[in-house]
Amino acid sequence: MRSDDVRSAVDAEVDADLARDHGEQRNMASRNTVALLASRMVVAVLGWSGTVLIARHLSPDDWGVFSFVFGLLGMMSIVTDLGVGRVVLARLLDADPEEAEKVASSFVSLRAVLGLIGYVLAVGYVVALGYPAQVVGATALAGLVVVIATPSHALSVLYQSRLKLVIVATAEALAQLVQLLLTIAIAMTNPTLLAFILPAIANELFSGTWKFIGVRRGWLGPRITARPSWALWREMLVEAVPLSIGLAMVTLLSKIDVLMIAHLDNFNAVGLYSVAYKFADLVSYAVLAVLAPVTTLLVAAWPMFHDEFRRRARSAAMTVGLLSCVAVAGMWASADRIVALLYGERFAESADATRMLLVGAVFAALSQFLLVTLVAAGRQRSYPWVAVGALGLNVGLNFVLIPRYSFTGSAFATVVTEFCMFVAMWILLARTVEIRRLLPAGRLAVMAGLTAAVCAATGLLHAVAPWPVATAAAVVLFVGGAFALRLVDPRALVAKASQREGTP
Predict the structure, then answer these.
(1) Residue 469 in this model has a pLDDT that exceeds 70
(2) How many CA atoms lie within 13 A of 82 on its CB side?
(3) What is the rounded CA–CA span in Å between residue 213 and residue 227?
(4) CA distance 117 to 384
(5) CB under 8 Å to 55, separation ≥6 — which residues?
(6) Nearest CA among 253, 250, 246 for reference residue 383
(7) Per the CB 3.0–4.6 Å rule, which of 190, 197, 276, 290 could disulfide with 354?
(8) Confidence band of 2 (pLDDT split at 50, 70, 90)
């Protein structure tokens, strides 16, 4: 056999191995997507149930304080995350076992230190701005969630690198169940502001312990040692800087509304806005569940498998769009009744804000997908400028609208900001990732038109029919329209199901 033939045979065998490995990754990712999506939905439902109990048992001002404190702690992810997780994920995919242990150990220890820094900053913020003692005490207690959750979330990234998110999904679902049971117990015995914070701490303790036990038992692969590498800390932080700036801006964008409403209005308005935002959070849970395993696949496909990268990106975009738009369609007509049913009549006035924030959640979800695609292709360097511009726009609109329209004005500011950011991200991706037809622009436009039509139709139906009928009709019309317009391909669904059944 000639040397060229030998090389060709070897290359063909290597390509076959790569394709086989990639096929296994796809199957694992599919299972992880289903498991994580189910977990996120369980967590969202259980979490919702908990917030309903808390909102119903606390006074309007105490509920506002509760929402403010956890909004402030959520903002601390600017410090506790820094985008290091995405850097580590890429490293772990290519690392040998020894290097993976060094990276994993350094990453977890770094996140633990960042969690402590986030705690100090949160407490320092409320003390420095002279908030009442009740707010300071609630922040000091709830801040323990950040201290525990930050290294725990680092463990989730490690599991994600090995496509073992089923373990993470199980831990999160069970932890949320523990939190709900404790919340019910407190609601029946001692329904105070500080008492309702304790279940959130228990949630993170349970989840983190579960994931740590999994690491100790070898479920993960890389071991966690007590010897972090300071040099790796520096490398991780330096490499994550461009992305961390952008992520910091996005975190501020998602949390600054609550802080500005508290500053420019009152804690009652904070509570009303937070209830409205809970429905948008449901969309975020679903989207993150879809994107977590997709991120790993996109990173693995780039740059060798352009066709696979395109297919995965287009499929993820449509999935994100469908999940987001069905939420808008289902809630649009009946938002006032659904909010009142869950949280009580005193929260019904947040219905308009709920509708607007759900629309904003659609654009936010698509922007998150675009960011994931940029990161997978290593094209995220320009992203911080987009995020800075979006933050500036949002703050400016909030300063103008909150004094005039309270929390509803803030919701409108969010919609405008998220739309502008989505457009900017789309342009950035099109200019930096040179793959033709990477995004399904036409199908997303059709989906937007379908959503608007369903909202208009069910709005008319709501005037003459009970709200459960209008809500059910909205979901049926949207799903039926999605199939009729081929936004969902039945043959592809059957093929995927058959593939999963045939997978050992």
Answers:
(1) yes
(2) 24
(3) 19
(4) 23
(5) 63, 271, 275, 343, 344, 347
(6) 246
(7) 276
(8) very low
Task: Out of 197, 213, 243, pick the residue that ends a domain.
Answer: 243
Q: Tell me what the mean pLDDT of segment 263-270 comes to.
A: 92
- Rounded to 5°, angle at Cα 180 from 167 and 336: 110
Whether residues 219 and 270 fall in one domain: no
Residues 6+ apart with CB under 8 A from 396: none
Residue 51 in domain: yes
Give 361's contacts (C-beta < 8 A, 6+ positions apart).
280, 283, 284, 324, 327, 328, 418
Q: What is the dihedral of CA 457, 463, 464, 466, to 10 degrees?
A: 100
pLDDT digits (tens, 9 = 90+) for 100-146: 777 778 888 888 999 999 999 999 999 999 899 999 999 999 999 99
Domain assignment present for 401: yes
Q: Give the residue among 143, 165, 286, 145 at the shortest CA–CA distance from 220.
A: 165
The size of the chain, in residues, is 504
At residue 312, what is the residue type?
R
CB of 417 within 8 A of CB of 390?
yes
Full-model pTM: 0.78
Whether 33 maps to a domain, the answer reads: yes
Which residue type is seen at 464?
V
Q: Is residue 7 part of a domain?
A: no
Using one digit for the tens of pLDDT, what is the confidence trace for 388-399? 899 999 999 999
448/98: higher pLDDT: 448
Cis peptide before 60 (omega within 30 of 0): no
Q: Which domain holds residue 279?
A: 265-504
Residue 7 and residue 270: Cα distance in Å, rounded? 67
| 21 and 156 co-located in one domain | yes
Distances (CA, A) of 461 to 44, 188, 470: 28, 39, 6
Residue 494 shares a structural domain with residue 363: yes
